[in-house]
Amino acid sequence: MARRIKTTTPKTGLYHAREARGLSRSDLVRLSGISKQQLSRLENGQIRLRLDHLKPFAPHLGYSPEQMLLWGKFPGTEGGDAEAGGALRARLDQKGPFDPPAHQVPEIDIHAEPKLRKGARHGDPLKSEKWTFPESFVHEQLHSAPEQLLVLEATGDSMAPTILGGERVIVDTGHTTPSPDGLYAIRDAFKSVIVKRLQVLRSSRPTGVKVISDNPTHPSEEVPLGELQIVGKVLCCLKLC
Fold first, then answer.
1. I need a surface site. Which of 49, 81, 142, 217 has the fewest CB within 10 A?
2. Domain 102-238 sits in CATH 2.10.109.10
3. Is the model's pLDDT at 195 over the cut of 80?
4. Please, what CATH class does the domain formed by 13-93 belong to?
């Protein structure tokens, strides 16, 4: 008689994201509104994951749907954040409602001396003061994790009227592939971080990228994708009133 071999399906990125945050299935069911049976099927690979499956969980786990879908291959999913998970676990154990904590996000100091850039985060010096954003804004509006964010001050008028000099943008450093087309923080020839609009030239060989200034008085240029240094995707602009 042939022996029947029992096989197991590897756990999905949703399972690993929940474990990294220190949440039980019951916790995530309560937070997301998804049934425990459905959550179990998604975590155990009984349902082929899609981005729309993961969107209800992203605000509560602090990982984007893309990170969970490509767990282990997407930046920020190598090991999880045990400290953040412990803190969230402690808050969930409290009785009654709780106020979501605010997250501090560093800002690149664009006025620092170039010699200070060596060894700093992303090769850039950071200001001592940080920006504070509510957890709900980071997770539900930006769909990112706070440890991946940077604030950058725009300089000059090359991106006017979209972004004016002196206005700040929030950059997701975990998104360094120019897809979809849009606003990205990149390094210029002087290694400074600037904001430009990127459009991938998919028909060119090798693949190229058109670097666009929204201000029509500033020229655009085309560069090979492999030569472009992308710091991250611009998620939003902090407009001055």
1. 217
2. yes
3. yes
4. mainly alpha
